[in-house]
Amino acid sequence: MLQDEELLSMFLEYDRAIQNYTRFDDWYLWVQMHKGTVSMPVFQSLEAFWPGLQSLLGNLDSAVRTFQNYYSVWRQFGGLPEFYSIPQGYTVEREGYPLRPGVTPQTQGRKTHTHDSGHNGLQAAPKGPETGS
């Protein structure tokens, strides 16, 4: 995508809408598709890729702030729950078990682009469902 100007241009247009409608205090909330109003103030583990993508696009300050939010949840629970209520600070029970991208691989990507080793402890985290063991 980053090598194709047309795809990058399309993504940047979507990113403006994402930043405008879903971003609150460096969290990205679920919003109503037609109105852009918040439908669920939750973080889901499937969103763990976002700081890595922000880093690839050069949005390093935003990537670090978003990562700090996600990492605070990791520290609270020893891993990422499938769903986390941002206002209440606890997990949300939902049916199903979505496959999720690893926060650890995206941390390595962010570290590569920022040369920041501030989250090295994450790489030594116990193995669990996210790593398949």
TrEMBL record:
The GO terms this record gives for MF are: calcium ion binding; mannosyl-oligosaccharide 1,2-alpha-mannosidase activity
Using the UniProt annotation, give all residue ranges assigned to the region (Disordered): 95-133
Q: What does the record list as GO biological process?
A: carbohydrate metabolic process; endoplasmic reticulum mannose trimming
What cellular component GO annotations does this protein have? endoplasmic reticulum quality control compartment; membrane
- State the UniProt keywords alphabetically: Glycoprotein
**Record carries keyword Nucleotide-binding:** no
Domain of life, per lineage? Eukaryota
* Family matches, as PANTHER family: ER DEGRADATION-ENHANCING ALPHA-MANNOSIDASE-LIKE PROTEIN 2
Q: What name has this protein been given in UniProt? A: ER degradation-enhancing alpha-mannosidase-like protein 2
Give the species. Answer: Cottoperca gobio
